[in-house]
Amino acid sequence: MSFQIGPIVVDPPVVLAPMAGVTNAPFRRLCREFGAGLYVSEMIGARSLVEKSEKTMTLARFDDDEIPRSIQLYGTDPGALGEAVAFLVEDHGVDHIDMNFGCPMGKVTRHGGGAALPWKTNLFRSVVRAAVINAGDVPVTVKFRLGIDEEHLTFIETGLTAEEEGVAAVALHARTARQLYSGKARWSAIRELKEAVPTLPVLGNGDIWTADDALEMMRSTGCDGVVVGRGCLGRPWLFRDLADVFAGRQPQTPPDLGEVGRIMIRHAELLVDHFGEKTGLNLFRKHPSWYLKGFPAGPVLRDGFARVASIEELMSLAERLDPDVPFPEEANRMVRGHSHGPRPVRLPHGFLDDRKAERLADEAEQVVSGG
Predict the structure, then answer these.
(1) Which domain, by its residues, includes 111?
(2) Residue 336 domain flag
(3) Among 31, 103, 223, 232, which one carries the catalytic annotation?
(4) Is position 103 annotated as part of the catalytic site?
(5) Model confidence over 189-237: pLDDT tens digits?
C-alpha cells in the first residue's frame, strides 16, 4: 500500500509530522532505522532561510543518505516564500516541500500566520502559488487544520485552492486552531476533504497512537495516507509497527525497558553527533519523559534523565532501569507532547472582519525556525 507525491512513492503510506524541536535530522534517522515512510523536517522560516540565519541553516541540514529530503516551510509573504523555495530546490537539494498552514500557537496566529492564514483566501492562494511556481518539478504539499474555530471553518476551500494551484497533496490535522491539541480529532472531516478534492492524495492527521489507528483512519475516511505526530514521541518503533500492518503482518512485540534504554542512548548519540554535546543533550532532555511514559521508573531516575549532561551519565542511568519490564500496553495511548486546549485563538485586531489581505504585518515573517 502506498501513495505518490509527484515522483516520490511513499510506501508505506506514512508521513512523520513536522514537530518543532523534535523532527531534526537525528530523530528522523532514528525513525528511519525502524521503518520506511516520508520523514519531514521541523518547520523552517522562509525569511530566516533567505537571510541565511545560522540556526535555520543548521535545522535545514540533512544526513548524506537521507532520501528523499523533505522540509517544512513557513511563510506568509509570497516574495520571501518564493525566494526560499528556489534556494531549497536549486542549492539545497530538497526533494519535497511541505507548507505549514496548521500551526495554532499564539506567537504565530497573533500575526495572522500558521492556522490563521487560510482565512485570508487571496493571500493564501498567492503564497501557495509562489511556492509551486518556484519549486518547479519538486512537489509541494500543504498541511492545514479545520479552521480557526467552529464558526470559521476553512478546510474545504483551503483544499480546493491548493488543488487549483497545483500542489501534489494535502494533509489535514482534523482539529481547529482553537482546539489546539485537545479533544478528539474529527476524522469525518478528512473524508469530507477527500470527497472534495478527489484528484489529490489526502493525508489524515490526528490521534494516530497505534498502527491499528492508522488502518482505521484510512478505512473510515478513504484518505491516502496518515501523518503521525505525537504518537511517535518516545516510541520511534511505531514506524516499524506501521510498516508491519501495511504489509499485512502483525506488529512485533514492543521493546522492554532495557531496549528502550538502548534506544534512548542511540537517540542521544545521534543528537550529539549532529549538534555537538551541549546542544545535542539539551535537545535530548525532553525525550526521556516520553520514552518512560507508563514505565515504573520512579521520580529520582526520571529527574536524572531530564538533567543528563553526558552520554556516559546517560549510560549509567540506563543501567539502573529494570531491563525485563515489558512495555505497558496502556502507555500506547498516553498522550505525549502538547495536550493543552481549547483556547481562544490569538489573532490580529479585526482579522476576522473580512477574507481579503494582500499581506500581513512584517512580524508574521519573523517566526523562529523550529517553532
Answers:
(1) 3-252+342-366
(2) no
(3) 103
(4) yes
(5) 999 999 999 999 999 999 999 999 999 999 999 999 999 999 999 999 9
